[in-house]
Structures are given as C-alpha cells and as structure tokens.
From TrEMBL, chain A:
CDD domains: TM_PBP2 (cd06261)
Alphabetical list of Pfam families matching this protein: BPD_transp_1, BPD_transp_1_N
Protein's organism: Streptomyces iranensis
Coiled-coil region list: none
Bilayer topology: Multi-pass membrane protein
Protein name: ABC-type transporter, integral membrane subunit
PANTHER family the UniProt entry points to: DIPEPTIDE TRANSPORT SYSTEM PERMEASE PROTEIN DPPB-RELATED, DIPEPTIDE-TRANSPORT INTEGRAL MEMBRANE PROTEIN ABC TRANSPORTER DPPB-RELATED
Residue stretches spanning the membrane: 12-30, 104-123, 135-156, 176-194, 234-256, 276-302
UniProtKB/TrEMBL annotation, chain B:
Keyword Aminoacyl-tRNA synthetase attributed: no
Example of a GO MF term: peptide transmembrane transporter activity
Source organism (scientific name): Streptomyces iranensis
Name of the protein in its database record: ABC-type transporter, periplasmic subunit
A GO biological process held by the record: peptide transport
Length: 309, 543
C-alpha cells in the first residue's frame, strides 16, 4: 500500500511537468499580443511596450521563460500578470476558495441526492419512481446548463425575488446555494443513473441472494452489501468530477457573477495572461491527480478483492 | 399508483410552465417614484468590472479603471455636451499668439484628500514622472506635444533627462507649457485623465498609492475589495463644480454584462455602462422611462486595407459606390433595433467641429448610383470583398446585414471574415495582413474633430492602420493645426473632413449610442458623450 502510494506520487512528476509545458507552449501559440492589447484600439507606445515586455520577462527566448517560470514555481512564486503587474498567486488564492466552496456544495448535492435517487430507482426498477427518476435525469442531461442557470436566475431572482439575481459576495455560502445546485445538476443526473444501473445489476447477484437467504434485514442488505458493491463506478465518476466542478464552472459562474477559477481562467485566456493560465492549470492538475489517487485507494476499501501491493 | 403518477406529471408540467412564463415579468414601474424623498447620504452603485491596473491616472486606459479615476480626481479642464472647454482645477489655460506657449493658472486653495496643496509644482512634477518610461505609465505618450518629451521618453532606450524642458513653474498657482509642435486645441488634450495631478506620496511609492489612491476629485477613496467592489465616499472639501449630490459610489465588479443587466432589473445595482447586445431589443420595454438612449461620441467605419492588391490602385469611385450600396437606415432600425444611428461623416456627434453630412450623398443609400459608380470605377477587383471583424463581440449581425445590402444592390460578393477575438483581430490589423476590408471603431480621446481625423487618417500616423494616404487631406490638416484659435482650427478640420469624401479612407457606417438604464433606487442618471455616467449628479431615494 505504502509503496503503491509512493509510486503513484512519483508518477505525478512527469505528468505535472508535461502538462505545464504543454499549456505554456499552447498559450504562446495563441494569436494576439497581450502587451499590445493593453492599448486596445489606440496605437501603442513602443517604448512602453518594450519596457513591459522586459519587465515581465517576455523578451526572453521561450525555453528560458519556461525555466524561469518553473524555478519560480518551486519557490512558490507564480509570476506576475501582464496587465496590472499583480502577483498571480494573489489572483489564484482569491479565486480558489470561492471555487472550492462552490464545488464542495455542488459535489455534496450530487453525491447525496444522486445516490439516494439512484438507489431508490435501482431497487424499484421498472416501477413509477424508476421511470420518474430516469425521465428527470434525461431532461437534466439534455437541457444545457446555461438554460437551467438562466431559468433559475430569472425565476428565483428576477421574478420571485427570493435571491438576488447574481451572487453579491462570492465567499458567502448562502448566496452560492443556487449556483451550486445548478452546477451540481448534471453531475447529479449522472450519479443517479450510474447508481441505478449498478444497483439494478447487483440486485440479482449471488451474494445478495445469500444474504437474503440468511435472513438479514432488508436495510442491512441494501446499505452494506448492495450499495457498497455498487459504488465503484459512482466513486470513479465523483472523483474526477471534483476537478471539473472546480474548473468547468465557467458558464454557471458567468451567469451568477461568481468570481471563481472558471471565470479567472476564461478572463486569462481572453487576455492571454500566460502566467495565470499555467498557474491555474498547475493547481488543477494537482487536484485531478490527487483525486484520482484517492479514488483508486477507495476501490480497495469498497471491494476487499482489490489490493495494492 | 395511478394517482401518484398523474400527480408527478402535474408537477413536471408546473416546472416547465414556470420557466416559460419567467420572461413575462418585469416591466415599467417607475411612475410611482415621483414623490419619494432624496437621501443626500445615499450610495449609488454602478456595474463596473475589476480595473486592469492599479488606480493611477496615467496608467489607466480601460473603462473599468477610468470611471473610478474620474470620481477620485479632477483635472485642469473638462468639457460640456457640445464639446466646449470648461475650467475645473484651472482658472484659465491661455495660449500665446502662435499657440506655442500655454499659461495655466490654477484656482487657488485646492488640496488633495489628504490635505496636501495642489500647486503648479504638483502638476509639473506629476507630468515629468508620468512621462518617464521607467515609471511604466501606459498613457505617457500623451505628453509628446510638450517640448523635451523626446529627451525624457525616447522611442527606444532610456531617457536622457528626467524633466521636460517645456514645463516651467512661474509661481505657486501658475506654470507654462511650451509645445514642440504648436497646436491650437492643446487645451482639449488636458481634459484626459493622464494629466490629472498626483500628490507627492504617489511618486515616492506608486505601488502603495495605486491600491489606495488619494486624489483631488469629488470623491474620496474608501476601499477596494478586489474583484468585488471599489467604494468611494463624497468629499466635503471639494472645491469644484461637480459637488456630489449623493453620499458615495459603490463600483461593483461584474464579470459579464448579462449578469449586471439581471441585477439592474431587480434594482440590485443602479446603472451599467451598456446593456448587453442580446437585450437591445428588450431593454426599453423592461425599463420604460428608466431606459437611457443618448448620444455617444463614437463611430464605426469599415475601412478598405489600402495596402492590399485589391485596393491599392482602385478608383475611389468604387469605394463611394460600395458606401452608397449600404442601406444604413434599415440596418439601424432592424439589426440594431434603433439603437444606432446611420453615420454621415467621419467625426462622431458631440465633439467640437462635428458637421452633419460631411460625407454627403456618398453615405446615403442609392442603389442606382451605387451600381453606376462601381461600374465607372472599373468594378471591385475580384468582384468579391470580405469584412474582417472580431467574433468575441457582437459584430456578426450588422456585418452580415451590411454585406447583404451590398450584394443585393451591386452584385458584388461580400462575406464576413470573423477572427476569434479582439486581440487576434488587432494583431492582423497591426501587421497589415487584412485581406480586404476591416471593421474599425473609434471613441473620442478628446472632444475635438481633429482627434477623429488627423489621428486616424493622416499619412503614416499610428492610428492609420489601412495605409490610407491623401496628400490634399494632409495639407488641410497641417493648415488646421496652424490656425490661431480653436474655432478656426475646427472649421479648417471640417474642410479636411469634407475632402475625405473624395478619397474615402473608410466607409462610415454607424454612430454608437449609450444604451443603458437606471434602477428604481435613484432619481435619474445621465451619461456624457464619452459614454461615462455622470455619477456625482445622481440623487438617491430614501430607502
């Protein structure tokens, strides 16, 4: 177990270097010059352009820029933004707590409601409740997230006035509630469907029949035997979803004016802020890698047959 | 079970119908605001965004920062709705006979928010500091008219001097500016935020100052919660004319205009710079009397890239013909829902020297003449044009409409040429790689017609991206710059603008407008011709 974890951690190093390098190169290939763009429609001032380029190290050859960047990264320095010359770390550490709150709420929502719906539907396969859950998840998956988001905003915000149409304070959990529900909606549908299929399949497995024959109470059969063995695909999905909930909330964050990671990334891309993009991706890669390691370790907990030497 | 099933169906149908009727709400309810009491301490909130740079006047070009800067600082001069100079911190700004030396007299007794006096030396020190490239102020090129600028700020390398030789302090409240190239309308440039004064502390520690600015304007800086809001409060010690009628301003950061629009509809924010294009059709209905649709000194043109093979030696009659093939009135009414105005010249409305119909018949829809002109000019080379635009802004609609109009009337094939975003678009224009025609927009720097002419269409100037050249126009510009007075210069520039109809540097399409609205929390909000809200004048209702 310990050796397995160590090996996985070591494997992260090449993945980490590879992704950062790739993103770094990709940002540099994008058309448009971020320094020139500071002047917008107006003619730029060549002396200032040169000064800013020199200041941010953009006049160095690409490989040297990357080395500089990586060296800084290992000392906790994420570089500075081109516009405004602010530390990238400040920007990132402002956005991540917001996204973490939003993602945690959305994730809990899809975990709890999704699994409950899935279990109920799986056990009562073919019954009305199953059809209802399947239909509901189908609708949620097929309607684009921005439609759900805008409809909620319009209805709860503009018409009913229960919430303010946009989030006024991105760190306030109460205000993040509706965006989190919207964000977790699609994940919830997938979790419910995965759980339902898995439960429905395992319901007729031998060990369940054995447990029933032994006369175990129904509740114990469902929670300990059926659910635990059915959770592996769900855990896989939930694990990778943490990352996408944090980075992929661009649309939801945009609708509700939440200043999280998705928004920061979008803005940075539009402004070609290389250091910000690479910085965010670096952190996200770490989140993804750790989440997938956790998922793999959870497999062993859920299914004793899986062992890591 | 049967009963339960139908109940579920009802529930689902209910949700769907709720979502469908959601668009029906809102509407005008501004009529009952007439009798409400005004709260002089009330706070106005404005849908802004996070400023790109820290808050230094000479380092702020974009709208999010400059609207905050304008509340914190007051410059020497300002301008009124018809583009005339008004004196703010200056008592007078007077040129000598040949406009080469300008004497600035300050109104005595002005101070910064921290009590430091605003004197002639303040201005001279600030400007010298701003102009120095080592201080990294983006707007430093604004000082290029002043003698000695090229010593402080050479095109390449480090400056040889720290102070511009053209600036001289006479006494506490007087200083003189000697210009390298005299122009009669120099005072107009002084209205730009680049020329605002800075207290001595700012020059010593600009980093700290930028996060915590101290100005001489109607509002005092209170706090900046990054990406959330900037708050300023009315300053009792303000000596200028724009004394705040409210208690302060809350500049709220929004990441998208759509989010701001929805907040505005629910009175969560009091006004926004421009409603999103998707709401242009609805906003007048949504806000009724509280909708704003006023003039804005900005113009859109489509410019042939004169360095391309297609346009290099083309008879300008062809360009005039294309211009006459665009049905501007119909496009303004349909594509823009009446929120743009057909352009009739190259200078936007609301600036000094604006003249209607500078382009004359060439900017009026005339299918017969359009065909005839294009034919007489030898036709469009290749019989096909494309209009380059940036796809991250809503240009597609009107570009398509303009293209359709051209093709329908003249048979010349016309397509849009979308480029992913504004940055990529600018790069192609800067590198002179436009294939045929490109979209161009210009918002006033200062309200004088010369700004829309000499800075955009003069041979070889930075703003002239299409390599347009008209020696006759250049001559007229030179003459206008040599005029004795502003009025005379504006008149001569009008003649230069009229000359452009013969050579067509670009095809004028539409004048922009300010399309905005205000909430039920405030009495009224107006916008100036630079497209900025006049926030000091806003009265807030008692809650």
């Amino acid at each position: 177990m310990g050796r397995y974890v160590a090996r996985r951690l070591l494997q992260m190093i090449p993945v980490f270097i590879g992704t950062t390098l790739l993103i770094f190169l990709m940002v540099n290939v994008l058309p448009g010059d971020p320094v020139r763009a500071l002047w917008g429609d107006k003619p730029p001032d060549p002396a200032q352009v040169a000064q800013i380029r020199h200041d941010r190290g953009l006049d160095l050859p690409l490989w040297e820029q990357y080395l500089h960047y990586m060296r800084g990264l290992f000392q906790g320095d994420f570089g500075r933004t081109i516009a405004g010359n602010r530390p990238v770390l400040d920007e990132i550490s402002r956005a991540f707590p917001v996204s973490m709150r939003l993602a945690a709420m959305a994730w809990t929502f899809e975990l709890v409601v999704g699994i409950v719906l899935g279990v109920v539907a799986g056990i009562r396969r073919g019954k009305v409740i199953d059809t209802a859950v399947t239909l509901f998840t189908l609708v949620v998956i097929s309607v684009p997230i921005f439609v759900i988001g805008l409809a909620c905003q319009l209805y709860f915000g503009n018409n009913l006035g229960w919430i303010t149409p946009t989030v006024q304070d991105s760190t306030n959990l109460g205000q993040l509630m509706v965006p989190a529900l919207v964000l977790g909606m699609v994940g919830l549908a997938y979790v419910a469907r995965l759980t339902r299929t898995s439960i429905a399949e395992n319901r007729s497995a031998d060990y369940i029949r054995t447990a029933t024959a032994k006369g175990l109470p129904r509740r114990r059969i469902i929670t300990v035997h059926l659910l635990r063995n059915s959770l592996i695909p769900v855990v896989t999905y939930l694990g990778t979803d943490i990352g996408s909930l944090m980075a992929g909330a661009v649309v939801t964050e945009g609708i509700f004016n939440v200043t999280g990671v998705g928004n920061l990334l979008f803005e940075a891309l539009a402004r070609r802020e290389g250091a910000v993009i690479v910085g965010i991706v670096t952190v996200l890669v770490l989140v993804y890698l750790l989440a997938s390691l956790l998922v793999d370790l959870l497999y062993a907990v859920l299914d004793p047959r899986i062992r890591y030497a | 079970m049967r009963g339960a099933k139908s109940a579920k169906w009802v529930a689902i149908a209910g949700v769907v119908s709720l979502a469908a009727t959601a668009c029906g709400g809102g509407g005008d309810n501004g009529s009952d605001n007439a009798n409400r009491k005004i709260d002089p301490k009330g706070i106005v909130s404005y849908a802004n965004g996070e400023p790109q740079n820290s808050l230094m006047p000479a380092n702020t070009m974009e709208a999010y920062g400059s609207v905050v800067i304008d509340s914190l600082f007051t410059g020497l001069v300002g301008y009124d709705k018809s583009g005339n100079i008004t004196y703010e911190n200056a008592e007078s700004v007077t040129p000598n006979d040949d406009n080469s030396v300008w004497t600035v007299k300050l109104k005595p007794g002005w101070t910064f928010h921290n009590g430091e006096k605003v004197t002639a030396k303040t201005y001279v020190d600030t400007w010298n500091w701003d102009a120095n490239p080592a201080n990294g102020q983006q707007n430093s090129a604004w000082y290029r008219d002043i003698e000695g600028y090229d010593q402080v700020h050479p095109a390449k390398g480090k400056g040889k001097a720290k102070a511009m030789s053209g600036l001289k302090v006479v006494d506490d409240n007087t200083f003189t500016i000697k210009l390298a190239n005299p122009i009669p309308y120099f005072a107009y440039k002084l209205a730009y935020s680049s020329f605002y004064p800075l207290p001595s502390g700012a020059l010593k520690d600009p980093k700290k100052f930028g996060e915590n600015p101290v100005g001489n304007g109607p509002y005092k800086f209170k706090s900046w919660d990054h990406k959330k809001s900037i708050q300023v409060s009315a300053w009792d010690g303000y000596k200028g004319q724009s004394k705040p009628k409210n208690g302060g301003i809350n500049f709220k950061a929004y990441t998208s205009p759509q989010a701001a629009y929805n907040d505005l509809r629910s009175d969560n924010v009091d006004t926004m710079p421009l409603v999103p294009d998707s709401e242009l059709a609805n906003y007048k209905q949504d806000f009724g009397k509280r909708a704003i649709n006023t003039e804005f000194s900005a113009i859109n043109t489509i410019n042939p890239a004169y360095y391309t093979k297609q346009w290099k030696d083309v008879d300008r009659k062809v360009v005039q013909g294309l211009s006459m093939a665009i049905d501007r009135d119909t496009i303004a009414k349909t594509t823009f829902f009446g929120n743009r105005e057909p352009a009739t010249g190259w200078v936007a409305k609301g600036v000094k020297g604006y003249q209607p119909d500078a382009c004359g018949e060439y900017c009026k829809f005339n299918p017969a003449k359009a065909k005839q002109f294009i034919k007489a000019g030898g036709g469009v080379p290749g019989n096909k044009i494309s209009i380059q635009y940036n796809a991250d802004q809503p240009h597609k609609g009107w570009v398509t409409a303009v293209c359709n109009s051209i093709t329908k009337t003249t048979g010349v094939k016309c397509v849009g040429d979308p480029v992913t975003d504004f940055q990529a678009d600018t790069e192609i224009r800067d590198q002179k790689k436009v294939k045929s025609i490109y979209r161009s927009g210009w918002v006033l720097d200062y309200p004088f017609n010369g700004n829309f002419l000499a800075d955009l269409f003069g041979t070889g100037v930075d703003g002239n991206k299409g390599d347009f050249s008209d020696p006759k126009f250049d001559g007229l510009v030179k003459k206008a710059d040599k005029a004795k007075t502003v009025d005379e210069s504006a008149k001569l520039y009008q003649a230069a603008e009229k000359e452009l109809r013969n050579t067509m540097p670009g095809i004028p399409t539409f004048y922009n407008k300010v399309n905005s609205a205000y909430s039920n929390n405030v009495k009224k909000i107006e916008f100036d011709q630079a497209g900025d809200p006049v926030l000091w004048n806003v009265e807030v209702f008692k809650k």
